Amino acid sequence: MSLLDLHDVHTFIGKFHILEGVSVEVPQGSVVALLGRNGAGKTTTLKTILGLTPASSGRVVFDGDDIVEMRSFDIAAMGIGYVPEHRAIFADLSVEENLRIAERRKGDLERREELIFGLFPDLKRLIGLPGTSLSGGQQQMLAVARALVPENRLLLIDEPSEGLAPVLIEQMIEAIARLSDTTTVLLVEQNFLVASRLGTTYVIIEEGRSVKTGDMTDLVDDDETIQRYLGV
Ligand SMILES: Nc1ncnc2c1ncn2[C@@H]1O[C@H](COP(=O)(O)OP(=O)(O)OP(=O)(O)O)[C@@H](O)[C@H]1O
Ligand SMILES: [Mg+2]
User: Fold this and answer.
1) 85-98 burial string, b = 16+ CB within 10 Å, else e?
2) Is 75 within 8 Å of 152 (Cβ atoms)?
3) pLDDT tier at 87 (50, 70, 90 boundaries)?
4) Alpha-carbon distance 190 to 115, whole Å?
5) pLDDT tens digit string along 170-191?
6) Is 112 in the pocket of ligand 1 (CB under 6 A)?
7) CA of 41 to the centre of ligand 1 (A)
8) Which of 182, 184, 131, 136 has its CA nearest to residue 160?
9) How far apart are CA 154 and CA 188, in angstroms?
10) Could you give the strand order of the β-sheet that contains 16-27, starting from the edge strand earlier in sequence?
11) Which of 4, 29, 34, 172 is the most exposed, fewest CB within 10 Å of its CB?
12) Whole-angstrom distance, CA of residue 169 vs CA of residue 205
């Protein structure tokens, strides 16, 4: 059964028709890789799921409920976590304050500490430091950790490996692989190697439309599709 289902979703930003028919199925327990070139509409797809750029038509069904008309706050409260692109943390707050802000209920952090610091041991060491004193990779880990503070059923993660050094990319892959044992993930990732290692299935978006989908194991051997839509 699908935990999340987008069917023929259209989204406008201002007068611009950005998503022109996006369908994505995210089975419970899977990692779905959302792929496509710069400007294809990957981030807008995640924002549309969350109601940040609401769909004008189509269906967005989460765990059996159509959420397309709901407000972002209520959508998130259903158990959907979001890791925005470009490491959106609060730079002038400490690591702990960044994590506290993500609490949905008091004490969420205590309940989830073992998991979070198990995945990202660096953050435990840095807990009192401001965001500004973290490296790019540590900031990205904090951005992911924040989405783990409340117990979410689905995580939307936008370009977690962007701008990271290879050793940190490896840590990030490891962390997402481990958290995907317990949480379903919709992952936007331009680094095809990262996407192919984490994804169970894929959806390719081109010019605001989902154009191809299938098992990741098939895509890895499909040079023609990779060249045509991803150009790597
Ligand atoms: N606020 C906005 N106003 C106007 N156009 C926008 C806005 N946000 C995004 N767009 C346009 O919508 C299209 C899709 O953008 P989106 O950010 O979803 O792409 P993306 O696939 O995430 O790209 P990237 O790989 O660069 O992150 C792009 O053409 C972009 O220029
Ligand atoms: Mg994007």
Assistant:
1) bebebeeeebbeeb
2) no
3) confident
4) 27
5) 999 999 999 999 999 999 999 9
6) no
7) 6
8) 136
9) 14
10) 16-27, 2-13, 55-62, 65-66
11) 29
12) 23
Taking Cα atoms as reference points, which of 149, 169, 53 lies closest to residue 96?
149
CB 100 within 8 A of CB 108: no
Residues in the chain: 232
| Full-model pTM | 0.95
Which CA distances in Å does 61 have to 108, 141, 149, 191?
Answer: 26, 29, 24, 28
What distance in angstroms lies between residue 158's CA and the mean position of ligand 2's atoms?
7
Helix, strand, coil share of the chain (percent; to 5): 40, 30, 35
Is residue 164 lining ligand 1, measured as CB closer than 6 Å?
A: no
Nearest alpha carbon to residue 62 among 189, 152, 178, 182: 152
For 2-79+152-230, CATH gives: 3.40.50.300
Q: Which two tokens stand for residue 54?
A: 């609401």
CA nearest ligand 1 atom 27, residue? 38
User: Which atom of ligand 1 is closest in space to residue 18's alpha carbon?
Assistant: 12
What is the number of alpha carbons within 13 Å of residue 79 lying toward its C-beta? 12
- What digits encode the pLDDT tens for the residues 112-166? 999 999 999 999 999 999 999 999 899 999 999 999 999 999 999 999 999 899 9
Helix ranges, the chain (H): 42-49, 72-77, 95-101, 108-119, 121-125, 136-148, 166-179, 192-198, 216-220, 223-225
- Give the residue extent of every domain in the chain: 2-79+152-230, 92-151
- What is the percent of the chain where pLDDT is above 90? 91
